[in-house]
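User: Fold this, then the next.

Assistant: Folding the first:
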Amino acid sequence: MTLTARYDRDINQLEFLENFALNLHRIEKDVQRCDRNYWYFANENLDKLRNVITTYVWEHLEVGYMQGMCDLLAPLLVIFNDEALTYGCFCKLMERMIENFPNGRAMDMHFANMRSLIQILDSEMYDLMDSNGDYTHFYFCYRWFLLDFKRELVYDDVFAAWEVIWAAKHVASSHFVLFLALALLETYRDIILSNSMDFTDVIKFFNAHKQSKTLATKMAIGLLAKVTDIRHNPNFGHFVCLI
């Protein structure tokens, strides 16, 4: 090996290690604060969480660690209580969820589809959003989609809710998360309208209220059925992609 080749190799290795070290710092910050109020993470299980997410980042350093990954990993570890099984499931989950992170394109599509759904299914709600500071960009839904509603639900409901979301792709719609998001809004529709909530009010409200997965998923299924019924109407042609 020539001196130049060795130099290039050493530089690449150094850059790799520096990048990995930076990711380790981000991981450590999030691991220490991830789900600490849940009983499972009150002991050595934090080490398991750290091991799994560190392994993922080592194997996917081109992706790296981004805030929110620990949130998606934690419930899987609770269920499996096994690092290898959790890692395998997390890798599969991230094949879909990675598009919701900053480098992906899914989040903008979610926002655009939510805008269309609200306009058609609840024009009064849309008019409020449009007139009261215009938050029809739906950025308040960002965390909902990023974490599959994990922080919006009671923790013990997350497992069943995720199963519904994952199964819906095969039996109902690959866009079921949109209808779940709409269900959260419709659950508190009267409160939002009567208080003429603006963007900040909506964020604060949902941060303070944990949802029941039973009520939310039932309403989401009903909303999906409603869209299914009207999708053949030529005025609703743009909904076909959501079924």
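Now the next one, as you asked:
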Amino acid sequence: MHLDESFEERKRCVKLVPIFQGLDDEQTGQVANLIEMRAAQKGEFLYRAGEASGTLYIIHHGQVRLTRMGESGKEQLLKVVSTGEVIGENQLFTVSVHESFAEAAQDTHYCAINHQDMIDLLEEYPTTAVALLAEMAKRLEDSERRSASLTTESAAQRLVSYLLNAEDEEGETFELPLTKKDLASYLGITPESLSRKLREFEDGSLIKQSGRRKIKILNRDDLTFQE
């Protein structure tokens, strides 16, 4: 769905994105002129696997689930992106189709920019090109680390790593950004196994759960060695 948009609103969308933060106000305005603002209701797809790619998406506010279908036909959560994050950059330099599904996890506003317009910007602003390459390298590293985790670590170890990373980023008390169903899919375990492990950690005084998603790490050292 297309939105009524203002130039200043488009500029605010551009400023959310780390790869554009090296631009001055005039340059930010040039990027904003190329952007189209759109909205997706919860459950609506920005794109589906198999569709031609040709757009870079910036999440203005809301959340988008990136998923793919496994060989067994079961949905696998790849990532949940939120405000200020970019998707569609993997297909930026090639003519290809999307390999994943992008579904709004909640009502979401986002900005869209044509791939060719984005390539022209990268040629004009090398600092943005370098920032984009750094972001793509980080995502590749994260993907490789996650793939290794799924094949070499137990369910408990994957959950522990996720909780400790969340604590590092948010502090000892944090709110899970995913539903427990999505978190289980992301970690490659069943929702039942996730709930059971969280209860075990809580019974062992390693964590404390409150509400639907809030968690406090009580004993980081002992939690680290859970298998």
